[in-house]
Amino acid sequence: MNQQELLDKAREGLANAYCPYSKFPVSAILVCEDGSVVHGVNVENASYGGTICAERSALCSAVSAGHRKFKSITIVTNLDTPASPCGLCRQFMVEFGNYEVVMGGANGSVEVSTTAKLLPFAFTPASLDEFNSQANNNK
Ligand code: THU
After folding, report:
1. What is the reported pTM?
2. pLDDT at residue 138 is higher than 70
3. Which CATH architecture has domain 3-137?
């Protein structure tokens, strides 16, 4: 699927968002390393803090299906301006490496970035690897 097809597919997915409280649907599509695609939507909760964003929802589904490496994530909302992922989702996305982040606005505008650019100076699995390889890590 090319970028426009992914944006269109993601937009179709907005109908599945469960957002009775915010009424702000978000839909995300991951392209996995093997080319398969995995969808996610935001899933809200009456206990508001229990809400999961579309990006994390897609990643949880993908990881549950055995995927660990991704080529891109495409995110759409009904905002004209492409919506940028929240901080928690940036942390969750960069856990799985540096890959493309495509954000689509309802008026057809598109922003393209990467997980690394969206979260500079990130704490990642490499930080823990470095700690584990230090001689003085109090083992
Ligand atoms: N939301 C996402 O799904 N992704 C983001 O990156 C930002 C926010 C959702 C969470 C909540 O259901 C609604 O948008 C309003 O915050």
Report:
1. 0.96
2. no
3. 3-Layer(aba) Sandwich (3.40)
